[in-house]
Amino acid sequence: xxxxxxxxxxxFDDAVFIGDSVTLKxxxxxxxxxxxxxxxxxxxxxxxxxxxxMDTMLLTYQGKDMTVEEAxxxxxxxxxxxxxxxxxxxxxxxxxxxxxWGKMVQRIQSACPNATVYIQSMTPIWTGxxxxxxxxxxxxxxxxxxxxxxxxxNIEFIDVxxxxxxxxxxMATRYCSDEYVHVTDLGAAAxxxxxxxxxx
Length: 200
Known about the structure:
Elements: E1 15-19, H1 21-33, E2 40-43, H2 49-54, E3 59-61, E4 64-66, H3 68-75, E5 79-83, H4 86-92, H5 94-111, E6 116-120, H6 136-152, E7 156-158, H7 185-197
Parallel strand pairs: 1-2, 1-5, 5-6, 6-7
Antiparallel strand pairs: 3-4
Helix pairs in contact: 1-7, 3-5, 4-5, 5-6
């Protein structure tokens, strides 16, 4: 991961991170280390883009279940960091998931017009832990299409995935906690270094 930071932890004081169980691990590390300042987190295991679009799984903020845009608005955040899609690809395919990104982002931007949206690439899968359509070839294709979507819609894109890989193209063992997709503290620290090095 990049050695030089462009921003410090306080940059994330007005940020909210949204995602599935991968981002949940980041929230634990951020809370214990303080490396993302006062950033807030809206996470839920197995949460996906389709859940956000169809409201089939809600996010909880201060004890209340809310849609993704309601929850973001309630946090008062002016920076919104999104990472999800792992739980969508097997069910809906890559192209339908990208289409759902368009619907989700539109809802977020309509509800929170003054917030800046940052899309993060999905982290890789540990080589040997791939399951059916959830494999690194598909993750790479998904991330490529997600980046194209971000560029076409003038949305900031932070490419986390390349910094998490080893020579096999999967998640580096030292960054992986479960021989699948979830990160260790080292993985979370590397992720944060990528976030801090981005040219905001």
